[in-house]
Amino acid sequence: MAVIEVEHLHKRYGQDIAVHDVSFTVEEGEIFGVLGPNGAGKTTTVECLAGLRPTDGGRVSVLGLDPGREREHTALRQVLGVQLQESGLPDKLKVREALDLYASFYRAPADVTGLLTRLGLADKAGTRYKQLSGGQKQRLAIALAMVGNPRAVVLDELTTGLDPHARRTTWELVEQIRDAGVTVLLVTHFMEEAERLCDRVAVIDAGRVVAVDTPAGLAARAGERQRMRFRPSAPLDDALLLALPEVDAVAWHGPQVEISGTGNLVQVVTSLLARRQIVAADLRVEQASLDDAFIALTGQRHAESA
Ligand code: ATP
Question: pTM for the complete prediction?
Answer without folding.
Answer: 0.80
